[in-house]
Amino acid sequence: MYENPSSYRARKYKDWLLRRANYRCERCGDSKYKLHIHHIIPRKDGGKHTPENLIVLCPSCHQYAEWLYNNGFEVSREILMMC
Ligand SMILES: [Zn+2]
Fold first, then answer.
1. Which of 3, 15, 21, 49 sits 20 to 30 Å CA-CA off 36?
2. Whose CA is closest to 55, among 28, 32, 7?
3. How far, in Å, from the CA of 81 to the mean position of ligand 1?
């Protein structure tokens, strides 16, 4: 099947992010659920597709991260991995 170079790169990048996270949620360490790659600062607010702005989360931590952000809390990888 034909795959264009940018989707190939995107897939490789996703694999790398998941490997960095050890295939677990980077907040709670869970690996039972489907993992999401979350933009810490959303793209609509200028968040970049960089390793610092991306974190692998389970569905409930993903919800929590969005809640924090939407309620005006400061969020970063370090904060999300600690709280
Ligand atoms: Zn989690």
1. 3
2. 28
3. 9
Q: Provide the 10 A C-beta neighbour count for residue 67.
A: 10
* Per-residue pLDDT reduced to its tens digit, 38-83: 999 999 999 999 999 999 999 999 999 999 999 999 999 999 998 7
Alpha helices by DSSP H, 1-83: 5-20, 59-70, 77-82
Pick from 23, 58, 53, 55: which is nearest to 41 by CA?
Answer: 53
Do residues 1 and 25 lie in contact, with contact meaning Cβ atoms separated by under 8 Å? no
C-alpha distances (whole Å) from 7 to each of 11, 25, 29, 75 are 6, 24, 28, 28
Name residues with Cβ closer than 5 Å to ligand 1, which is an ion.
25, 27-28, 30, 58, 61
Distance 27 CA to ligand 1 centre (A): 5
Tokens representing 43 are 């793209």
